[in-house]
Amino acid sequence: MRFIYGCFPRQLNNFSIPVPLDTSQVWENTPLYYSNHWTKEELQVFESPQLQAFIVGTNITTKEEQESIFMEYQETGNIAVFNRWKGNDQIFLYHNNSLLLIPDLLGLYPIYFIHLPEYTVFSSRQTILSCLFNKQVDMNQLLISLLCSSITEFKLRKSIFQNIQSIPPCQALLLTKSKNEYKMVWRDDSTMPLVEGAANFRNALLDTVQRRVEKKSHVSLDISGGLDSTPLAILASKNPHLMRSGITYQSESEHEWEDGAIAKEICETYGIDSTFVSTDEAPSPYEKLAQAPLTDEPIPFLHMYAKILYGLKIMKSKGSELHLTGDSGDNVLNANGHYIVDLLNLKSLNQFTQHLYARSRLRNHSPFKMLKEAVTLRFQDYPHWVKKQAKSILRPISTHPIISGWSGNIGRFSWISQEQKATIAKQLEEWAQKAIPYSKVRSIHSDLVHLHWNARLARSLSQLGDSINLRVQFPYLDTLIVRTCLHIRAEERANPYEFKPLMKRAFQKELPQSLLQRNTKGDYTFDLYKGVQKQFSQLKELLLDMELVQFGIIEKDTWMDICKRFEMGVSIPLWEFNLTLAYECWLRSIKKSDLLWEEVIFDENCIPCKLYRN
């Protein structure tokens, strides 16, 4: 397990802290430690007469670029300079008797902490802090994490363990002897047109891929045949000395067979050693749930984890040192539908009308209903929108709004008890009084929130890779890529008349004609319903005796009714069902592992075997 652990003392008197086993100290007189499972390339130390920094993660920002950023921060104190950072890193910066904790921008590599009377202790893994300081699962925060999964700016303030807090994405935490203070890292830039943005995006994506693979001898890639994974395969192939392996999952869906044909063409054209995995060969959805590795938090895609891990193991067996995936490309390349409200704010009535009508036709929605939602959102500031979400928790939700609001919407968890919902609604309403958006631009705030959820998915996938010692990275979540794309005009990125115009403009010379002409994305829901029919007999034991029922979080009768409907192939809130299943399995894994006991050995888990140093 890869993690960072340390503390910042607020008093001069001596004290002792528990330190995990199998760790090394960064500096002799500084209580900062790293586990010995990191590679040398993932750790960097920057030192100058005025500051010290420990950098952990992808580490693709060069020494010269680091020095420029650190020196500017030292001179100006402007934390926004870290928006120029490349890749995905955690930064632990010691300067003027203070410590600045900076997670990567989207929270792919988060930082958790506990405030104690004498010091603040922190770690990159919440399970490390829960073990060392005997912190149990916080059921209230677990429920917030489940029910408000899409409102990431609300749920990511705290860990799902008691008294452990989390530094929210887009922010940093400044620790001094007298106080602790959050600092907003994200800053808005001026927007640019698609033509200019496409050139910047192309250069940024080429740069981040080349930096990630330049010290590797063998990398692997997901090659789905789609517009996100294909450019990564093309760019990785620009290094002639790099061995490349690709994996493609084939579906029984007719549309995905077209994707498979494109994937095969890409592999043959660029000399990629391809592996095609059929639905009969790979584990089916909902298979082996009880065997999932214990990760730092519930795996949102747990229903598909066995299939994904199966593919990663194939890539590892071929000698891959690094696996690149196109995950999160959708939300980076496109803009959330809330941009329509920005057009109304900017009084771009002609564009507003065109986009609203086109999007309503594409999605078979009433343009009048969309118009009503857009006008309503136009006069709702962020705190009022949050209060509205708090009220909606207690109402039955059959469908989500057509236009997403400032953030994601409350899930359709009809099986969560009204008593529990009322508790969370009250907390959300209280938080609304002090809620501040990440950006003054609605669509940028909304895009960032959705990307925070993508980073959550990526964290779980990265930890699955760690369980077999294969690094998994996500170029589209690179800080520079995100900043470049989010400052391209949203109405041009999300053009309803063209599918992913940014990617097509940036790589129009390399992409196959079939991809340039594509205007749709694949749908794998068919595989899920087939998988649950195949695995339902094994799921029954899990579904009948739920930890979440025993804790009073979900109502058993309502939950069982949903399960019966799913077994029969009747439509249910599938996303919410899968997430509930993931939380249930994670709770069982925590209980089964005796995680909070000293020196317990866990086989094939993402949690270290021993945690305490005497």
UniProtKB/TrEMBL annotation:
Q: What is its EC number?
A: 6.3.5.4
- Output the PANTHER family linked to this UniProt entry: ASPARAGINE SYNTHETASE, ASPARAGINE SYNTHETASE (GLUTAMINE-HYDROLYZING)
Identify the keywords attached in UniProt to this record, alphabetized.
Amino-acid biosynthesis, Asparagine biosynthesis
**Reaction catalysed by this chain?**
L-aspartate + L-glutamine + ATP + H2O = L-asparagine + L-glutamate + AMP + diphosphate + H(+)
State the name under which the record lists this protein: asparagine synthase (glutamine-hydrolyzing)
Q: Does the keyword Amino-acid biosynthesis apply?
A: yes
Which SUPFAM superfamilies does this UniProt record tie to the protein?
A: Adenine nucleotide alpha hydrolases-like, N-terminal nucleophile aminohydrolases (Ntn hydrolases)
Q: Give the organism the record lists.
A: Paenactinomyces guangxiensis
Question: Is Amino-acid biosynthesis among the key words of this record?
Answer: yes
Q: In which pathway does it act?
A: Amino-acid biosynthesis; L-asparagine biosynthesis; L-asparagine from L-aspartate (L-Gln route): step 1/1
Q: Name one Pfam family in it.
A: Asn_synthase
One GO term (biological process): asparagine biosynthetic process
Q: Name one GO molecular function term.
A: asparagine synthase (glutamine-hydrolyzing) activity
The record's top EC class is ligase
